[in-house]
Amino acid sequence: MRRSLLVIALIFAALMVVALEADDSLFVQVRESELRSAPGFLSQIVEKLSLGDELSYVGERAGWYQVTLPATDQSGWIHEGSVRENKETTLQLAGEGTTRTVSSREIALAGRGFSENMEGEYESGNELDFSAVDDLEARRVGPEEIVAFVLEASLRQDILQPAEE
Amino acid sequence: MTATTRNTTLLIVAAAAIVVLSLPGCAALAGVTGELAALGIIDEDVQKAVEVGAAGAEVISSINETFTPEQQYYVGRGVAATILVQYEPYRDEQATAYLNALGQALALASAQPLLYRGYRFMILDSDEINAFATPGGHIFLSRGMIRLAESEDELAAILAHEISHVVLQHGMKSIKSSRITSSVVGALATTAEALTDNQLVELAASFSGSVDDVAQTLVTSGYSRATERDADAGAVEILLSVGYDPGGLIRILERMGHELEPGGLDFAKTHPDPDVRIRWIEDMLEDSNVVSGVNNSVTQARFDAALGSL
Predict the structure, then answer these.
(1) N or C: which end of chain A has fewer CB within 10 A?
(2) What digits encode the pLDDT tens for the residues A94-129?
Protein backbone atom coordinates (compact mmCIF):
# COMPACT_ATOMS: atom_id res chain seq x y z
CA MET A 1 0.00 0.00 0.00
CA ARG A 2 2.81 2.38 0.95
CA ARG A 3 4.45 1.55 -2.37
CA SER A 4 1.38 2.48 -4.40
CA LEU A 5 1.16 5.72 -2.47
CA LEU A 6 4.76 6.41 -3.36
CA VAL A 7 4.08 5.72 -7.04
CA ILE A 8 1.15 8.11 -7.02
CA ALA A 9 3.26 10.72 -5.24
CA LEU A 10 6.04 10.32 -7.82
CA ILE A 11 3.60 10.69 -10.72
CA PHE A 12 2.25 13.75 -8.99
CA ALA A 13 5.74 15.20 -8.61
CA ALA A 14 6.62 14.43 -12.24
CA LEU A 15 3.51 16.24 -13.44
CA MET A 16 4.40 19.27 -11.34
CA VAL A 17 7.88 19.38 -12.87
CA VAL A 18 6.42 19.25 -16.38
CA ALA A 19 4.05 22.07 -15.49
CA LEU A 20 6.89 24.19 -14.09
CA GLU A 21 9.13 23.63 -17.09
CA ALA A 22 6.39 24.63 -19.48
CA ASP A 23 6.16 27.99 -17.70
CA ASP A 24 9.57 29.03 -19.06
CA SER A 25 8.35 29.00 -22.66
CA LEU A 26 7.35 32.16 -24.51
CA PHE A 27 5.75 32.33 -27.95
CA VAL A 28 6.04 35.09 -30.55
CA GLN A 29 2.57 36.67 -30.88
CA VAL A 30 3.20 39.17 -33.68
CA ARG A 31 3.65 38.42 -37.38
CA GLU A 32 7.34 39.32 -37.53
CA SER A 33 9.80 40.16 -34.80
CA GLU A 34 13.52 40.32 -34.08
CA LEU A 35 15.87 38.88 -31.52
CA ARG A 36 18.38 41.61 -30.58
CA SER A 37 21.82 41.61 -29.00
CA ALA A 38 20.71 43.91 -26.15
CA PRO A 39 17.45 45.52 -24.94
CA GLY A 40 16.37 48.35 -27.27
CA PHE A 41 15.22 48.98 -30.82
CA LEU A 42 18.69 50.23 -31.81
CA SER A 43 20.45 47.01 -30.82
CA GLN A 44 21.80 44.69 -33.46
CA ILE A 45 19.38 42.08 -34.85
CA VAL A 46 20.74 38.58 -34.25
CA GLU A 47 17.76 36.57 -35.53
CA LYS A 48 14.47 37.16 -37.39
CA LEU A 49 11.44 35.60 -35.69
CA SER A 50 7.88 34.95 -36.78
CA LEU A 51 4.46 34.21 -35.27
CA GLY A 52 4.42 31.14 -32.99
CA ASP A 53 8.21 30.74 -32.61
CA GLU A 54 9.07 29.28 -29.21
CA LEU A 55 11.60 30.95 -26.91
CA SER A 56 12.97 30.09 -23.46
CA TYR A 57 12.84 32.79 -20.81
CA VAL A 58 16.17 33.73 -19.19
CA GLY A 59 15.58 37.14 -17.58
CA GLU A 60 14.15 40.63 -18.13
CA ARG A 61 15.06 44.33 -18.04
CA ALA A 62 13.23 47.57 -18.88
CA GLY A 63 10.37 45.93 -20.76
CA TRP A 64 12.58 43.46 -22.61
CA TYR A 65 12.95 39.69 -22.12
CA GLN A 66 16.27 37.91 -22.40
CA VAL A 67 15.58 34.59 -24.12
CA THR A 68 17.19 31.70 -25.96
CA LEU A 69 15.97 29.90 -29.06
CA PRO A 70 15.65 26.22 -28.03
CA ALA A 71 16.50 25.02 -31.54
CA THR A 72 19.84 26.78 -31.93
CA ASP A 73 20.61 27.97 -28.39
CA GLN A 74 20.92 31.47 -29.87
CA SER A 75 20.52 34.00 -27.08
CA GLY A 76 19.14 37.55 -27.32
CA TRP A 77 16.53 40.10 -26.27
CA ILE A 78 12.94 40.61 -27.40
CA HIS A 79 10.39 43.30 -26.41
CA GLU A 80 7.83 41.93 -23.93
CA GLY A 81 4.94 43.04 -26.18
CA SER A 82 6.03 40.60 -28.89
CA VAL A 83 5.54 37.43 -26.87
CA ARG A 84 2.90 35.65 -24.82
CA GLU A 85 3.13 32.77 -22.37
CA ASN A 86 0.59 30.36 -23.79
CA LYS A 87 0.68 28.84 -27.21
CA GLU A 88 -2.31 29.27 -29.48
CA THR A 89 -5.07 26.93 -28.42
CA THR A 90 -6.72 24.54 -30.79
CA LEU A 91 -10.35 23.49 -30.87
CA GLN A 92 -11.75 20.13 -31.89
CA LEU A 93 -14.32 20.65 -34.60
CA ALA A 94 -16.82 17.79 -34.92
CA GLY A 95 -18.31 17.75 -38.40
CA GLU A 96 -20.43 15.18 -40.29
CA GLY A 97 -18.95 12.00 -38.81
CA THR A 98 -15.47 13.53 -38.89
CA THR A 99 -13.42 15.37 -36.34
CA ARG A 100 -10.76 17.82 -37.36
CA THR A 101 -8.70 20.25 -35.42
CA VAL A 102 -9.09 23.93 -36.20
CA SER A 103 -6.81 26.55 -34.82
CA SER A 104 -8.11 29.71 -33.26
CA ARG A 105 -6.65 31.47 -36.28
CA GLU A 106 -8.98 29.59 -38.61
CA ILE A 107 -11.91 30.63 -36.50
CA ALA A 108 -10.68 34.18 -36.43
CA LEU A 109 -10.36 34.07 -40.20
CA ALA A 110 -13.82 32.60 -40.65
CA GLY A 111 -15.54 35.92 -40.03
CA ARG A 112 -16.31 38.54 -42.61
CA GLY A 113 -13.30 39.58 -44.56
CA PHE A 114 -10.94 37.56 -42.42
CA SER A 115 -9.65 35.18 -45.05
CA GLU A 116 -8.48 35.84 -48.56
CA ASN A 117 -11.26 33.72 -50.02
CA MET A 118 -14.01 35.44 -48.13
CA GLU A 119 -12.58 38.91 -48.41
CA GLY A 120 -13.45 39.31 -52.10
CA GLU A 121 -16.97 38.10 -51.50
CA TYR A 122 -17.61 40.50 -48.66
CA GLU A 123 -15.82 43.31 -50.41
CA SER A 124 -18.58 43.36 -53.01
CA GLY A 125 -21.39 42.24 -50.68
CA ASN A 126 -20.75 44.99 -48.17
CA GLU A 127 -19.00 47.42 -50.51
CA LEU A 128 -15.93 47.20 -48.32
CA ASP A 129 -12.60 48.38 -49.62
CA PHE A 130 -9.82 46.11 -48.40
CA SER A 131 -7.45 47.30 -51.14
CA ALA A 132 -7.27 50.69 -49.43
CA VAL A 133 -6.52 48.89 -46.15
CA ASP A 134 -3.76 46.97 -47.96
CA ASP A 135 -2.32 50.30 -49.19
CA LEU A 136 -2.34 51.62 -45.65
CA GLU A 137 -0.61 48.50 -44.32
CA ALA A 138 1.99 48.47 -47.08
CA ARG A 139 3.57 51.64 -45.74
CA ARG A 140 6.69 50.98 -43.69
CA VAL A 141 8.78 53.38 -41.67
CA GLY A 142 12.33 52.03 -41.47
CA PRO A 143 14.19 52.02 -38.15
CA GLU A 144 16.75 54.48 -39.55
CA GLU A 145 13.92 56.92 -40.42
CA ILE A 146 12.57 56.81 -36.86
CA VAL A 147 16.06 57.26 -35.42
CA ALA A 148 16.66 60.29 -37.65
CA PHE A 149 13.24 61.73 -36.75
CA VAL A 150 14.03 61.42 -33.02
CA LEU A 151 17.63 62.64 -33.15
CA GLU A 152 17.25 65.65 -35.45
CA ALA A 153 14.69 67.26 -33.12
CA SER A 154 16.32 66.12 -29.86
CA LEU A 155 13.35 63.99 -28.82
CA ARG A 156 14.12 61.59 -25.96
CA GLN A 157 16.42 58.80 -27.11
CA ASP A 158 15.42 56.39 -24.37
CA ILE A 159 12.24 55.60 -26.31
CA LEU A 160 14.57 53.81 -28.74
CA GLN A 161 17.04 52.33 -26.30
CA PRO A 162 16.65 51.99 -22.52
CA ALA A 163 19.56 53.46 -20.56
CA GLU A 164 22.30 51.02 -19.48
CA GLU A 165 21.91 49.67 -15.96
CA MET B 1 -2.14 3.12 9.99
CA THR B 2 -5.77 1.96 10.39
CA ALA B 3 -7.87 0.97 7.43
CA THR B 4 -9.95 4.11 7.80
CA THR B 5 -7.06 6.58 7.90
CA ARG B 6 -5.38 4.69 5.06
CA ASN B 7 -8.49 5.05 2.95
CA THR B 8 -8.78 8.70 3.85
CA THR B 9 -5.15 9.30 2.90
CA LEU B 10 -5.64 7.46 -0.37
CA LEU B 11 -8.72 9.51 -1.10
CA ILE B 12 -6.84 12.76 -0.54
CA VAL B 13 -3.92 11.69 -2.73
CA ALA B 14 -6.30 10.45 -5.41
CA ALA B 15 -8.25 13.69 -5.31
CA ALA B 16 -5.02 15.68 -5.62
CA ALA B 17 -3.90 13.49 -8.52
CA ILE B 18 -7.24 14.00 -10.29
CA VAL B 19 -6.90 17.74 -9.94
CA VAL B 20 -3.43 17.64 -11.48
CA LEU B 21 -4.36 15.13 -14.18
CA SER B 22 -7.40 17.15 -15.18
CA LEU B 23 -5.44 20.38 -15.58
CA PRO B 24 -4.92 19.90 -19.31
CA GLY B 25 -8.70 19.45 -19.58
CA CYS B 26 -9.28 22.69 -17.71
CA ALA B 27 -6.78 24.42 -19.93
CA ALA B 28 -8.58 23.14 -23.03
CA LEU B 29 -11.91 24.41 -21.75
CA ALA B 30 -10.36 27.71 -20.75
CA GLY B 31 -8.95 27.84 -24.27
CA VAL B 32 -12.34 27.28 -25.86
CA THR B 33 -14.13 29.82 -23.73
CA GLY B 34 -11.20 32.19 -24.12
CA GLU B 35 -11.51 31.95 -27.89
CA LEU B 36 -15.23 32.60 -27.75
CA ALA B 37 -14.68 35.60 -25.54
CA ALA B 38 -11.96 36.76 -27.90
CA LEU B 39 -14.32 36.49 -30.82
CA GLY B 40 -16.93 38.47 -28.93
CA ILE B 41 -19.24 35.46 -28.76
CA ILE B 42 -19.33 35.41 -25.00
CA ASP B 43 -18.26 38.06 -22.58
CA GLU B 44 -15.88 37.63 -19.67
CA ASP B 45 -18.63 36.95 -17.14
CA VAL B 46 -20.06 34.10 -19.16
CA GLN B 47 -16.56 32.77 -19.82
CA LYS B 48 -15.89 32.83 -16.12
CA ALA B 49 -19.19 31.17 -15.21
CA VAL B 50 -18.67 28.34 -17.69
CA GLU B 51 -15.11 27.74 -16.54
CA VAL B 52 -15.89 27.91 -12.83
CA GLY B 53 -18.92 25.66 -13.25
CA ALA B 54 -17.11 23.01 -15.26
CA ALA B 55 -13.73 22.96 -13.58
CA GLY B 56 -14.72 23.75 -10.04
CA ALA B 57 -11.89 26.23 -9.91
CA GLU B 58 -11.46 29.69 -11.28
CA VAL B 59 -9.62 29.62 -14.60
CA ILE B 60 -9.95 33.10 -15.92
CA SER B 61 -7.59 35.23 -17.88
CA SER B 62 -7.74 38.99 -18.01
CA ILE B 63 -9.14 40.71 -21.09
CA ASN B 64 -5.62 41.58 -22.22
CA GLU B 65 -4.68 37.94 -22.26
CA THR B 66 -7.91 36.89 -23.93
CA PHE B 67 -7.42 38.78 -27.17
CA THR B 68 -4.31 37.93 -29.14
CA PRO B 69 -2.71 40.74 -31.17
CA GLU B 70 -3.63 38.71 -34.24
CA GLN B 71 -7.33 38.69 -33.38
CA GLN B 72 -7.24 42.42 -32.69
CA TYR B 73 -5.57 42.91 -36.04
CA TYR B 74 -8.27 41.07 -37.98
CA VAL B 75 -11.07 42.91 -36.19
CA GLY B 76 -9.15 46.13 -36.89
CA ARG B 77 -8.85 45.29 -40.59
CA GLY B 78 -12.61 44.91 -40.84
CA VAL B 79 -13.15 48.19 -39.00
CA ALA B 80 -10.60 49.98 -41.22
CA ALA B 81 -12.36 48.71 -44.35
CA THR B 82 -15.69 49.95 -42.97
CA ILE B 83 -14.23 53.42 -42.32
CA LEU B 84 -12.76 53.54 -45.82
CA VAL B 85 -16.22 53.01 -47.30
CA GLN B 86 -17.25 56.33 -45.77
CA TYR B 87 -14.03 58.28 -46.30
CA GLU B 88 -11.56 58.63 -49.17
CA PRO B 89 -7.84 58.42 -48.37
CA TYR B 90 -5.96 61.69 -48.93
CA ARG B 91 -2.90 60.63 -50.87
CA ASP B 92 -0.17 63.18 -50.17
CA GLU B 93 3.12 61.30 -49.92
CA GLN B 94 5.10 63.87 -47.93
CA ALA B 95 2.32 64.53 -45.42
CA THR B 96 1.60 60.81 -44.95
CA ALA B 97 5.30 59.95 -44.51
CA TYR B 98 5.66 62.67 -41.87
CA LEU B 99 2.53 61.51 -40.05
CA ASN B 100 3.83 57.92 -39.98
CA ALA B 101 7.30 58.86 -38.70
CA LEU B 102 5.76 60.96 -35.91
CA GLY B 103 3.22 58.24 -35.13
CA GLN B 104 5.86 55.50 -34.93
CA ALA B 105 8.02 57.54 -32.55
CA LEU B 106 4.99 58.05 -30.29
CA ALA B 107 3.99 54.38 -30.50
CA LEU B 108 7.49 53.33 -29.37
CA ALA B 109 6.95 55.33 -26.17
CA SER B 110 3.55 53.69 -25.51
CA ALA B 111 2.92 50.67 -23.29
CA GLN B 112 2.36 48.54 -26.40
CA PRO B 113 4.86 49.59 -29.10
CA LEU B 114 4.49 46.38 -31.08
CA LEU B 115 1.22 45.16 -32.53
CA TYR B 116 0.63 42.19 -34.82
CA ARG B 117 1.45 44.32 -37.87
CA GLY B 118 2.44 47.55 -36.17
CA TYR B 119 0.80 50.97 -36.24
CA ARG B 120 -0.15 52.63 -39.55
CA PHE B 121 -1.38 56.21 -40.08
CA MET B 122 -3.54 57.55 -42.90
CA ILE B 123 -5.05 60.95 -43.76
CA LEU B 124 -8.73 61.02 -44.74
CA ASP B 125 -9.87 63.52 -47.37
CA SER B 126 -12.51 65.21 -45.25
CA ASP B 127 -13.01 68.68 -43.76
CA GLU B 128 -14.61 67.15 -40.68
CA ILE B 129 -12.71 67.29 -37.39
CA ASN B 130 -12.33 63.56 -36.87
CA ALA B 131 -9.93 60.74 -35.97
CA PHE B 132 -10.31 56.96 -35.58
CA ALA B 133 -8.12 54.15 -34.23
CA THR B 134 -8.94 50.48 -34.92
CA PRO B 135 -7.95 47.67 -32.51
CA GLY B 136 -5.39 46.57 -35.12
CA GLY B 137 -3.45 49.86 -35.06
CA HIS B 138 -4.90 51.48 -38.20
CA ILE B 139 -5.11 55.16 -37.26
CA PHE B 140 -6.99 57.74 -39.36
CA LEU B 141 -6.92 61.53 -39.12
CA SER B 142 -9.13 63.78 -41.23
CA ARG B 143 -7.62 66.75 -43.07
CA GLY B 144 -9.88 68.97 -40.97
CA MET B 145 -8.36 67.57 -37.79
CA ILE B 146 -4.78 67.95 -39.02
CA ARG B 147 -5.45 71.56 -40.10
CA LEU B 148 -6.35 72.37 -36.48
CA ALA B 149 -2.77 71.63 -35.43
CA GLU B 150 -0.25 74.46 -35.69
CA SER B 151 2.80 72.61 -34.38
CA GLU B 152 4.30 69.15 -34.07
CA ASP B 153 3.48 68.74 -30.37
CA GLU B 154 -0.19 69.54 -31.07
CA LEU B 155 -0.37 66.95 -33.84
CA ALA B 156 1.53 64.52 -31.60
CA ALA B 157 -1.14 65.07 -28.93
CA ILE B 158 -3.94 63.93 -31.26
CA LEU B 159 -1.96 60.90 -32.41
CA ALA B 160 -0.99 59.96 -28.84
CA HIS B 161 -4.68 60.04 -27.85
CA GLU B 162 -5.55 57.66 -30.70
CA ILE B 163 -2.58 55.36 -29.92
CA SER B 164 -3.83 55.18 -26.32
CA HIS B 165 -7.23 53.91 -27.51
CA VAL B 166 -5.35 51.04 -29.24
CA VAL B 167 -3.05 50.30 -26.28
CA LEU B 168 -5.95 50.29 -23.80
CA GLN B 169 -8.01 48.05 -26.14
CA HIS B 170 -10.99 50.39 -26.00
CA GLY B 171 -12.27 49.19 -29.37
CA MET B 172 -12.34 45.53 -28.34
CA LYS B 173 -14.12 46.44 -25.12
CA SER B 174 -16.97 48.00 -27.10
CA ILE B 175 -17.98 44.61 -28.50
CA LYS B 176 -21.44 43.80 -27.15
CA SER B 177 -22.02 40.82 -24.89
CA SER B 178 -25.21 40.17 -26.91
CA ARG B 179 -22.95 38.54 -29.51
CA ILE B 180 -23.52 35.38 -27.47
CA THR B 181 -25.79 32.98 -29.28
CA SER B 182 -27.89 30.50 -27.33
CA SER B 183 -26.71 27.47 -29.31
CA VAL B 184 -23.07 28.33 -28.66
CA VAL B 185 -23.78 28.61 -24.95
CA GLY B 186 -25.70 25.32 -25.13
CA ALA B 187 -22.81 23.62 -26.88
CA LEU B 188 -20.45 24.86 -24.20
CA ALA B 189 -22.61 23.41 -21.45
CA THR B 190 -22.50 19.92 -22.95
CA THR B 191 -19.47 19.26 -25.14
CA ALA B 192 -17.07 22.08 -24.53
CA GLU B 193 -14.29 21.09 -26.89
CA ALA B 194 -16.44 19.91 -29.81
CA LEU B 195 -17.99 22.53 -32.08
CA THR B 196 -20.03 21.69 -35.17
CA ASP B 197 -19.56 23.36 -38.55
CA ASN B 198 -22.90 25.02 -37.93
CA GLN B 199 -21.66 26.57 -34.74
CA LEU B 200 -18.55 27.72 -36.54
CA VAL B 201 -20.77 29.60 -38.98
CA GLU B 202 -22.44 31.23 -36.02
CA LEU B 203 -19.06 32.17 -34.62
CA ALA B 204 -18.22 33.84 -37.91
CA ALA B 205 -21.49 35.76 -37.91
CA SER B 206 -20.90 36.91 -34.38
CA PHE B 207 -17.37 37.94 -35.22
CA SER B 208 -18.72 40.00 -38.09
CA GLY B 209 -21.17 41.59 -35.66
CA SER B 210 -18.24 42.38 -33.39
CA VAL B 211 -16.56 44.32 -36.18
CA ASP B 212 -19.79 46.27 -36.64
CA ASP B 213 -19.93 47.02 -32.90
CA VAL B 214 -16.46 48.56 -32.95
CA ALA B 215 -17.06 50.55 -36.16
CA GLN B 216 -20.39 51.83 -34.83
CA THR B 217 -18.70 53.00 -31.62
CA LEU B 218 -15.86 54.76 -33.46
CA VAL B 219 -17.94 56.49 -36.12
CA THR B 220 -21.31 57.13 -34.50
CA SER B 221 -21.82 56.55 -30.79
CA GLY B 222 -18.40 57.32 -29.30
CA TYR B 223 -16.79 56.01 -26.12
CA SER B 224 -17.83 56.89 -22.57
CA ARG B 225 -16.39 59.96 -20.85
CA ALA B 226 -14.30 57.75 -18.55
CA THR B 227 -12.83 55.98 -21.57
CA GLU B 228 -11.90 59.27 -23.27
CA ARG B 229 -10.37 60.48 -20.02
CA ASP B 230 -8.22 57.33 -19.87
CA ALA B 231 -7.09 57.92 -23.46
CA ASP B 232 -6.17 61.53 -22.60
CA ALA B 233 -4.19 60.32 -19.56
CA GLY B 234 -2.39 57.80 -21.78
CA ALA B 235 -1.67 60.55 -24.32
CA VAL B 236 -0.14 62.80 -21.66
CA GLU B 237 2.14 59.95 -20.56
CA ILE B 238 3.28 59.24 -24.13
CA LEU B 239 3.95 62.93 -24.83
CA LEU B 240 6.06 63.27 -21.70
CA SER B 241 8.01 60.10 -22.56
CA VAL B 242 8.89 61.40 -26.02
CA GLY B 243 9.74 64.86 -24.72
CA TYR B 244 6.82 66.84 -26.18
CA ASP B 245 4.99 69.50 -24.21
CA PRO B 246 1.67 67.86 -23.15
CA GLY B 247 0.22 71.36 -23.15
CA GLY B 248 -0.10 70.77 -26.90
CA LEU B 249 -3.15 68.67 -26.13
CA ILE B 250 -4.77 71.58 -24.30
CA ARG B 251 -3.94 74.06 -27.08
CA ILE B 252 -5.46 71.91 -29.81
CA LEU B 253 -8.55 71.20 -27.70
CA GLU B 254 -9.03 74.97 -27.22
CA ARG B 255 -8.95 75.43 -30.99
CA MET B 256 -11.27 72.45 -31.42
CA GLY B 257 -13.71 74.09 -29.01
CA HIS B 258 -13.91 77.13 -31.32
CA GLU B 259 -14.16 75.15 -34.55
CA LEU B 260 -16.51 72.26 -33.73
CA GLU B 261 -20.03 72.93 -34.93
CA PRO B 262 -22.87 72.00 -32.57
CA GLY B 263 -24.78 69.03 -33.98
CA GLY B 264 -21.84 68.02 -36.19
CA LEU B 265 -21.34 64.34 -36.91
CA ASP B 266 -17.62 64.38 -36.05
CA PHE B 267 -15.89 64.91 -32.69
CA ALA B 268 -18.84 67.13 -31.72
CA LYS B 269 -20.89 63.93 -31.57
CA THR B 270 -18.42 61.25 -30.44
CA HIS B 271 -16.26 63.08 -27.89
CA PRO B 272 -16.85 64.99 -24.64
CA ASP B 273 -16.87 68.81 -24.85
CA PRO B 274 -13.27 70.06 -25.34
CA ASP B 275 -13.65 72.31 -22.25
CA VAL B 276 -14.41 69.25 -20.11
CA ARG B 277 -11.34 67.46 -21.47
CA ILE B 278 -9.13 70.53 -20.92
CA ARG B 279 -10.16 70.62 -17.25
CA TRP B 280 -9.23 67.00 -16.58
CA ILE B 281 -5.97 67.32 -18.53
CA GLU B 282 -5.03 70.37 -16.44
CA ASP B 283 -5.62 68.23 -13.33
CA MET B 284 -3.37 65.52 -14.78
CA LEU B 285 -0.60 68.02 -15.46
CA GLU B 286 -0.76 69.69 -12.07
CA ASP B 287 1.98 67.53 -10.57
CA SER B 288 4.08 66.88 -13.65
CA ASN B 289 7.23 68.83 -14.16
CA VAL B 290 7.68 69.28 -17.90
CA VAL B 291 11.28 69.59 -18.94
CA SER B 292 11.44 69.53 -22.71
CA GLY B 293 14.70 69.63 -24.60
CA VAL B 294 12.98 69.42 -27.98
CA ASN B 295 14.44 71.59 -30.73
CA ASN B 296 11.31 73.53 -31.66
CA SER B 297 12.78 75.21 -34.74
CA VAL B 298 13.46 71.75 -36.23
CA THR B 299 10.01 70.39 -35.39
CA GLN B 300 8.28 73.52 -36.72
CA ALA B 301 10.26 73.46 -39.97
CA ARG B 302 9.44 69.83 -40.74
CA PHE B 303 5.80 70.27 -39.64
CA ASP B 304 5.35 73.25 -42.02
CA ALA B 305 7.16 71.50 -44.89
CA ALA B 306 5.02 68.35 -44.63
CA LEU B 307 1.61 69.81 -43.83
CA GLY B 308 1.76 73.42 -45.03
CA SER B 309 -0.30 72.74 -48.14
CA LEU B 310 -2.93 70.60 -46.44
Answers:
(1) C
(2) 333 444 445 555 555 444 334 444 455 555 556 677
ipTM: 0.74
Question: Does residue B184 share a domain with residue B85?
Answer: no
B270 vs B256: CA distance, rounded Å: 13
Whether residues B50 and B186 fall in one domain: yes
Alpha carbon distance A64, A41 (integer Å) = 10
Tell which of A114, A119, A124, A134 to mutate to test the B interface (max B CBs under 10 Å). A114
Residues B134 and B61 in one domain: no
Identity of the residue in A12, A30, A132 whose CB atom sits nearest the CB atom of B116 = A30
CB atoms within 10 A of CB A98: 8
Note whether B294 contacts A155, CB cutoff 8 Å.
yes
The answer to whether A95 faces chain B, any CB pair under 8 Å, is yes
Number of domains present in the structure of chain B:
2
CATH superfamily to which A2-85 belongs: SH3 Domains (2.30.30.40)
Interface test with B, best of A16, A134, A137 (most B CBs within 10 A): A137
Q: Choose the closest CB to B105 out of A114, A133, A159.
A: A159
Strand pairing partners for A90?
Answer: A103
Domain residue limits at B97: 72-172+223-307
